């Protein structure tokens, strides 16, 4: 199906339909899902992607007879929209977005659009770190307890596609700050904010307060009938909460202090208390997810489960048998007594801090990529304690050298996953760990963090 043929068809369809025209910018998972739902609801649909559309998404659009273009944005076919649904990855500074805003055309996220067409309730999880793990754990707990639940958002299949084709009572949605920026009337029934640490500051004028304000949109439109769960140990979250006043019932979680309602840690036991429900207690040694950061993630999921009045034994079982996601502290192999760990999903400094914090052996750290305004200072103490060598994997590694040249004896530059893995293997000795935890985005050398992680795993298996 050629682009020219598509555009001609778009004009014909627009004239014939007489309905609202929905234009979708970006033809990835969320964009194609939004197109499916918009078509089902009777809109005239046009999909435009400034980049290349993956074959599987082209086929999905063609099978549905949805008109699309790739490698361009044809303005006359976009600026006549009733409403535009944009990919989270398109910044508000993109020229086409500026023109849409100037014309007063509504620009929203796929999540906002999909919520209009479902009565399902939502558990919405955001945070700079841990949101994928917590979303998957929460989904695992709810599904095992027998709830009719879907998983969507920044993870799994498109929310809009599931609204178009499924009939769930609940959704667990992983929500990024980019999604929140394009959500206006959307309301989370249960909102979870795990933490706020510097990330994506290039999208927020390099101001943490702008990024924090974006994260706090998770509680917009909530009422006293809704629930807000947050980390009482997170400084930026507490700062942000001084500027807003949640209407929802709030449940904090903490590992350093006791709370009346919510979750806290007493020695090695998690306590979760929600109003009159019977208290849930669980030893942290019984959690499937280990490490301090995962205590927080487990607490957040546990509060959701208790709010929904799930049985304690069911919650404990699910929190004890959960399997974590690919590319997040994923053990790849042990070769010559050296552990190889894939944490490619660590695309910011805080994620890498969590990874290093959980290491119990000396580390050869593979890091680098597209630097998003990173401040590496928070890593310095852990790097001094645990890291014997840094293998840089990226096109421009100057800032990593500058940050750690006084803390680590060996810092090496590499330009492929295979080269980085081989050098790290030679720098490590029996009992060490080789940890891929980049602290940076992957787009300089890889398609995405999954591609980076998969290439690393393939290189490990070739050793």
From TrEMBL:
<dbReference type="InterPro" id="IPR005762">
    <property type="entry name" value="MurD"/>
</dbReference>
<dbReference type="GO" id="GO:0051301">
    <property type="term" value="P:cell division"/>
</dbReference>
<dbReference type="GO" id="GO:0008360">
    <property type="term" value="P:regulation of cell shape"/>
</dbReference>
<feature type="domain" description="Mur ligase C-terminal">
    <location>
        <begin position="327"/>
        <end position="440"/>
    </location>
</feature>
<dbReference type="Pfam" id="PF02875">
    <property type="entry name" value="Mur_ligase_C"/>
</dbReference>
<comment type="similarity">
    <text>Belongs to the MurCDEF family.</text>
</comment>
<keyword id="KW-0131">Cell cycle</keyword>
<dbReference type="GO" id="GO:0071555">
    <property type="term" value="P:cell wall organization"/>
</dbReference>
<keyword id="KW-0067">ATP-binding</keyword>
<keyword id="KW-0963">Cytoplasm</keyword>
<dbReference type="InterPro" id="IPR036615">
    <property type="entry name" value="Mur_ligase_C_dom_sf"/>
</dbReference>
<dbReference type="Pfam" id="PF08245">
    <property type="entry name" value="Mur_ligase_M"/>
</dbReference>
<comment type="pathway">
    <text>Cell wall biogenesis; peptidoglycan biosynthesis.</text>
</comment>
<protein>
    <recommendedName>
        <fullName>UDP-N-acetylmuramoylalanine--D-glutamate ligase</fullName>
        <ecNumber>6.3.2.9</ecNumber>
    </recommendedName>
</protein>
<dbReference type="GO" id="GO:0008764">
    <property type="term" value="F:UDP-N-acetylmuramoylalanine-D-glutamate ligase activity"/>
</dbReference>
<keyword id="KW-0436">Ligase</keyword>
<keyword id="KW-0573">Peptidoglycan synthesis</keyword>
<keyword id="KW-0133">Cell shape</keyword>
<keyword id="KW-0132">Cell division</keyword>
<keyword id="KW-0547">Nucleotide-binding</keyword>
<feature type="domain" description="Mur ligase central">
    <location>
        <begin position="125"/>
        <end position="304"/>
    </location>
</feature>
<comment type="function">
    <text>Cell wall formation. Catalyzes the addition of glutamate to the nucleotide precursor UDP-N-acetylmuramoyl-L-alanine (UMA).</text>
</comment>
<keyword id="KW-0961">Cell wall biogenesis/degradation</keyword>
<dbReference type="GO" id="GO:0005737">
    <property type="term" value="C:cytoplasm"/>
</dbReference>
<dbReference type="InterPro" id="IPR036565">
    <property type="entry name" value="Mur-like_cat_sf"/>
</dbReference>
<dbReference type="InterPro" id="IPR004101">
    <property type="entry name" value="Mur_ligase_C"/>
</dbReference>
<dbReference type="InterPro" id="IPR013221">
    <property type="entry name" value="Mur_ligase_cen"/>
</dbReference>
<dbReference type="GO" id="GO:0009252">
    <property type="term" value="P:peptidoglycan biosynthetic process"/>
</dbReference>
<feature type="binding site">
    <location>
        <begin position="127"/>
        <end position="133"/>
    </location>
    <ligand>
        <name>ATP</name>
    </ligand>
</feature>
<dbReference type="GO" id="GO:0005524">
    <property type="term" value="F:ATP binding"/>
</dbReference>
<dbReference type="Pfam" id="PF21799">
    <property type="entry name" value="MurD-like_N"/>
</dbReference>
